[in-house]
Design goal:
Helix content is 44%, strand content 18%. With 803 residues, it is an alpha+beta fold. A seven-stranded mixed sheet has the order 16-28-27-26-17-24-25, sandwiched between helices. α7 runs antiparallel to α8 and α11 runs parallel beside α22. The longest helix has 36 residues, at 736-771. It is elongated.
Length: 803
Amino acid sequence: MTQTTDPITREVDLAITGMTCASCSARIEKKLGKLEGVDAVVNLATEKATVRYAGDVTVEDLLATVRATGYGAEVIDRTPAPRRRDLLVDPSRGTSERGDLLVNSSRPGGVAHAVSSGDTVSPDDTDSSVHADSSHHTDSSVHTGSSDHVKRAVARQEDLKRRALAAMVLTVPVVVLAMVPGVSVPGSPWVQLALATPVVFWAGWPFHRAAAMNARHGASTMDTLVSIGVLTAYLWSAVVVLTGRASTMGSMDAAAGEGAHIWFETATVVTTFLLVGRWMEARATDRTRDAIRGLLSLGAKDVAVERVDPTTGATTEVRIPVDQLEVGERFVVRPGEKVATDGTVREGESSIDTSLVTGESLPVDVTPGDEVTGGTVNRSGRLVVEATRVGSETTLAGIARLVERAQTTKAPVQRLADRVSAVFVPIVLVLAALTFIGWWIGTGDATRAIEVAVAVLVIACPCALGLATPTALLVGTGRGARLGILIKGADVLEDTRRVDTVILDKTGTVTTGEMTLVDVSTTGNLPKDQALRAAAAVEAGSEHPVAGAIVAAARSRGIEVPRATDFLSLPGAGARARIKDVEVIVGRSDLFERVPREISRPTVDGTTVWVGWDGEARASLTVADTVRPSSAAGIAGLGKAGLTAYLLTGDHDRAALNVARDVGIPAGRVFADVRPQDKHAMVADLQSRGRVVAMVGDGVNDAAALAQADLGIAMGTGTDVAAESADIVLLRAELPAVLDAIELSRATLRTIKVNLAWAFGYNVAAIPLAMAGLLNPMVAGGAMALSSVLVVTNSLRLRRWTP
């Protein structure tokens, strides 16, 4: 076999388990990056690593490296689809030589096919045999299904839910016994010990496990701080109770009575609050995966394929699952059905609604020889389509791939608490050790030295820190919901802080996304209402979006639409019907023998049809996607806030420039005829030039750009896929809500930072008191409670936030 001197670059997706914070994903990236020829991107939110590797490195080497770092790893299986033999793939770009958007196909083991620039990919390459080189293969032992990964994620979320709920139930009585003055229960210390034990060791196990894992690699995170503080508080309290030295009174009253102080309430409260936060985070993480699932669910589930009987030559239709459809096969698409896959029309004429995939508001008329895209909807005539791309090579699958890749390559935002704790934890440990040594040497009393050192560790565990982010996020998102703004998580807030550029999709975002009658022009003395009445009578029998706009306009004006008979659809041209024995035609101008000069050309932009009878056009009707009334004010608000607005659309130049003019966007910042992957590429290009980009859209075609952007904002009136791909969802379909969302997010972020500063500031101020042995248990308990109250109060100020 001829050997190539250039190493073949391969790619594999790994499902990573055990990550708890941004430092975990960074550590895995660093370890994998040390392998020669390996480039890895690890995403904390999706719990997945995308690894490109070359040379002698194998998938097993990658898995072993991740596992040696202390995390679980398995290969995510991607099922390949048949490819055309004449399709050449450039692995560096993920596109064919003719520019088609493709998805890297993979083996059952999840390793992307390695293809040199001159290789031809054939259907035979989809088996589990060797690819271009027999030395590069995938061991079936590493195969796993992506569905298994999803099941594990759901199971983890349910596990966190159980732990959080159990911790809440057990923590409430501990807090009451310890913190409420005058509450006295026989054997209170023993009751607290019994209730706190399962909270600390069972419910809090994820934190202890993560702390131990980080310690093995010489690192410290928020989990380390929590684990040390919780275990120290619990173990000291348990020793005090078991030796019979515990106060028989509540912790708040301990200073007035006899006995040593116990800290069970600190251990349980911190564990419970952080568990609830971790559970909420897991739920948010699962929602990020819904974007991919939603995209793939948009396609047809089965398809009617034409099969020729070799004996009789007769053609019959056989309905099969869409994943069995092969390139070159012909399939039937009836009115109202989705196009099963990308292909070329071979028979029939129709109108295709492409808004779901391309975002274009106007339907596209197709005839034999025209290309159609899988996932679009056939509105009128019967079509026979020849499949040209199937499975992972379709446009819809390509958009899904772009969304997934954008989510994976998006840099994770490292939490402020983790950054601080990386320094704070080692300092606290050193201070506690120095405190113990100093008091032991100074007093000669080891017990007293231990007690003071424990006080340092306990006071260093920031009780208010567990409230800092969840309370501000809860209040901020609650206020946003009342204003029609849904914020998905704390990481989103930090993304809004640096945004300087806003990219706006046109259809459904700046405009209404619905066809509306905008002009009626008539000849002679024909009243406009009469022309609209005749056109609506004919169009009432059509399912075309233009027809729907005409009928809706007639009804909104109170025009009584007469009943038409002998309706006949003219695919790609219009329709005809009889009204009181007069044949009326609605459609293109070439359907008429004569079109008067005064109505021969549209007076406004949009889609124009003509209505007439006896061979002569009597009126023209124009429908268009209209600009939302609030869009101009929204653009102006963005400009005043220092944000630069761009307009993107899959529509033609003329329509885009007219909308931009109406809302105040300069022509130089308008981009028309943009495909979904072009939107994604433009966001990436602006980011590469140092811009921090917010993308605002509403359609499937916007999903990849929404995921790629630093901040994705989706109109709630759009598709579910767009909403799942975005960071913020606007229930108010108005552009001023975009600026409101950004400003509210920034206000919530500022509140979180103030809360974190107070939580850590309390600890920094209290630690010297603890080291000096001046920490009175009652004062410490009151200070902890006050710290939490201040954090909550500061968060509640967001309830009064106004745009």
